[in-house]
Specification:
Elements (H helix, E strand, L loop, with lengths): L2 H23 L6 H18 L1 H4 L11 H22 L5 H10 L1 H5 L9 H10 L3 H11 L4 H20 L3
Helix pairs in contact: 1-4, 1-5, 1-9, 2-4, 4-8, 4-9, 7-8
Length: 168
């Protein structure tokens, strides 16, 4: 499956998850402010998982656990995708196609993305209007394939539904 097809499926799954979450909590929509704060929070959790690579002053710092980094990166995907749909005031299949068309160049050239500085990418996601492009660059910087992102997204989606069911 190509990245664009995987992303489309992820967006559709995220749309359904968002609807279930909103229904569970009696909300009609998510605010831009809350979504931005959620993205910042998840980026902080991601940065914390990467601490073994950049925390030079702590002798007891644990090494980076690649699986935990992937989990946190996928959490960022959840909120970035939600942010993209909320900015269009729609999560229809047509809106999702429009989002994917906007990012088509980045999606099609994912495997060619160059290595950027981690600190720049993390900062850029929190203030960029084109968050998905920067998130794809971050994924490449962290040396994850999109297949890894897709599989972890599917895993996390199941976990999120279990959490909803169990009152997380």
């Amino acid at each position: 499956m190509k990245i664009k097809e995987q992303l489309k499926e992820m967006f559709q799954m995220q749309r359904t998850l968002n609807e279930n979450i909103l229904n569970e909590f009696g909300e009609e929509a998510m605010t831009e402010e809350k979504l931005e704060l959620a993205i910042i929070d998840e980026l902080g959790e991601l940065t914390h998982e990467l601490k073994g690579d950049w925390c030079w002053w702590k002798k007891t710092q644990k090494p980076v656990d690649r699986k935990r980094v992937l989990e946190e990166l996928v959490d960022v995907y959840h909120f970035v995708m939600t942010n993209e749909m909320e900015r269009r005031y729609s999560s229809t299949d047509e809106a999702i196609d429009s989002i994917l068309n906007k990012y088509e160049f980045s999606i099609n050239h994912f495997n060619e993305l160059g290595k950027e500085r981690l600190d720049y990418l993390i900062g850029d996601i929190s203030y960029s209007y084109d968050k998905l492009t920067v998130l794809l660059q971050l994924t490449k910087c962290l040396q994850f394939s999109f297949d890894e992102i897709y599989q972890e997204y599917l895993n996390k989606n199941k976990i999120n539904y279990e959490r909803l069911k169990n009152g997380y």
